[in-house]
Design a protein that fits this description.
Order of helices and strands: HEHHHEHHEHHEH
CATH superfamily: P-loop containing nucleotide triphosphate hydrolases
Number of helices: 9
Largest sheet: 2 strands, parallel
CATH class: Alpha Beta
Strand order of the largest sheet: 1-2
CATH topology: Rossmann fold
Number of domains: 1
Structural class: mainly alpha
């Protein structure tokens, strides 16, 4: 973002979950027992959060800003499938979403993802972050990317390179396309 801002491009960073009012509930229903027992609660909470997020994105774009969002629709297509919700239903619930101009998928090995989860302050106690579900996550991302590669502009980038190189690659993709 810094590089874009230095070029005079107004950039706003967002992340899902987005709404402060819903974050605690989303985290609660992402805990292992709740995520397993109440997958549709998680789906609907995330869709409600995304509704607030989409309005913010639309308002931000109207002000001529670029929005960079960490996690969005493609994440729901993967994580809610891990909870055994059919992709078609996930798509239907999220049909109100605006599609991003470009999606960057940062490809990171399972070993590196586990290392990062252990060292960071991410929601480590969630249903999604265990070895079994991380393998399923990787498989589902491949499937979702394959399904949407002609509909969505998706760029796969090595997420294990130095952050400065990763940033340069993303910015280069933005201006080359």
């Amino acid at each position: 973002m810094d590089r874009l801002e230095k070029m005079g491009i107004k950039t706003i960073y967002t992340k899902e979950p987005f709404s402060e009012d819903l974050k605690d509930l989303i985290q609660k229903y992402s805990l292992p027992n709740n995520a397993r027992d109440y997958p549709y609660v998680n789906l609907f909470l995330l869709a409600a959060d995304r509704t607030v997020h989409v309005k913010f994105i639309k308002d931000t774009i109207k002000e001529n800003n670029i929005v960079i969002s960490d996690r969005y629709l493609i994440s729901s297509c993967v994580y809610q499938q891990i909870q055994r919700i059919p992709l078609e239903y996930i798509e239907q619930i999220n049909s109100f979403c605006i599609l991003p101009d470009i999606i960057f998928y940062l490809k990171v090995s399972q070993k590196e993802r586990l290392k990062r989860l252990k060292s960071g302050n991410r929601m480590r106690n969630t249903f999604f972050f265990n070895k079994t579900n991380l393998l399923l996550e990787e498989k589902l991302y491949k499937e979702v990317i394959e399904k949407y590669k002609n509909k969505w502009k998706i760029r796969i980038i090595d997420g294990e390179i130095k952050p400065s190189l990763l940033h340069d690659r993303i910015v280069n993709f933005l201006f080359d396309d």
